[in-house]
Amino acid sequence: MIKFFTDIEDFKKEIRTLNLDANLETVTNIDFTFFEHNEYYTLIYVPDYDIFNPENILLVAKKNVYVYSNKKFNNYEKNFKEVLKKPLGESTAIILLLLKNILKNYSQEFEKVRQELNSLDVDPILEKVEESGRALRRLTDRFEELLQLIIVLKERDIKEFNTSYINFDYDMLNAEARYWLERCRSHVYRISSLRTKYEMKSNRELSATITRLTVIMTFLSIVSIIVSVPGTIGAVFGIPALSDEYFKPHTRTLVLTLIVATLLTVILGYIYWKSLKLVHK
C-alpha cells in the first residue's frame, strides 16, 4: 500500500503509529540527503528547491510506502503496472519516481543559475557573481549527494528498491544524474572567469577615472599659469624702486612684453595639452 502526504504533521502522526525508531524531527532539520536502512524500515530524505515544500521523505516499513512530498506521481499505476504486481514493486516504483522528480527539480534550478551567469557575462557585478557561485556550489553538492544515493541503493542490494525490475529506468536515472553533475561542475569554472571579467571592468573604470583626473589637473595647471600673470604685473609695479628706476620710462614695452609672454604661455600650454591626447569620457 502507498500513502501520500502533503502535510508534515499528518505524515509524522502516521509514522508514529508504526512504533518505529525513526527520528523524523532530526531528519527534517537537516539540509542534505539522508538515507537509513535496517531490518525494520528504509528511510530516504532528500531536500530540493520547491518553493512550497522543499522536503521529500519516503519511508518503507511493513511492506507499506509512506511518502511526504509535493511531487506528482501521475499515472504511476499505469506506467509501472507490471512492476507494482511484484514483491516490493510499489516501493521500487515510488523511489524511482521520487528520485526522477527531484533530479528534474535540480536541473531546473541549474538552468536558473546558468541564466544568471549568462547575464553576468554581459555585466559582471561582484556581489551577484559571488552569490551565484555559492548557489552553484550548493547545487553541485546536492547533485553529488543524489548521485551517491542512486549508487548506494543498487550497490547495497536494498530489497525495497529492486533494480532488476527497472533496469532501463535505473540506468537512465544514473546517467542523467551524472550528466547534470558534470554540467554543474563545468560551470563552477565560470565563476573564476566572471571574477576576472569584473576585475578587468574595474581596472578600465579606474583607468578612465585617472584619465579624467589628469585632464582636470592639466587644465587647472594652465589656468593657474594664466591667472599668475596679473600677479606678476602687480608685483613688478608694486615695487617703487624697480618701477621708478628701470620700468617707468618703458611702461608700454613692459606691458606688451608681459602680454606676449602670457599669450605664448597659453599657446604652449594648449599645444602641450593636445599632445597628451587625453580623452575625456
Question: Can you offer a commentary on this structure?
Answer:
A 5-stranded mixed β-sheet has the order 1-5-4-3-2. Helix 5 (89-122) runs parallel beside helix 7 (167-237) and helix 6 packs antiparallel against helix 7. It has 9 helices and 5 strands, in the order E-H-H-E-E-E-E-H-H-H-H-H-H-H. Among the domains are: 1-70, no CATH class; 203-275. The model has no long low-confidence stretch (mean pLDDT 84). It is α+β, with helices and mostly antiparallel strands. The chain has helices at 8-16, 24-27, 76-79, 81-84, 89-122, 126-155, 167-237, 240-247, 251-275; strands spanning 2-5, 34-37, 41-47, 55-61, 64-68.
How is this structure best summarized?
By secondary structure, the protein is α+β, with helices and mostly antiparallel strands.
Name a few traits of the molecule.
five-stranded mixed beta sheet, single chain, 9 helices, 281 residues, alpha+beta
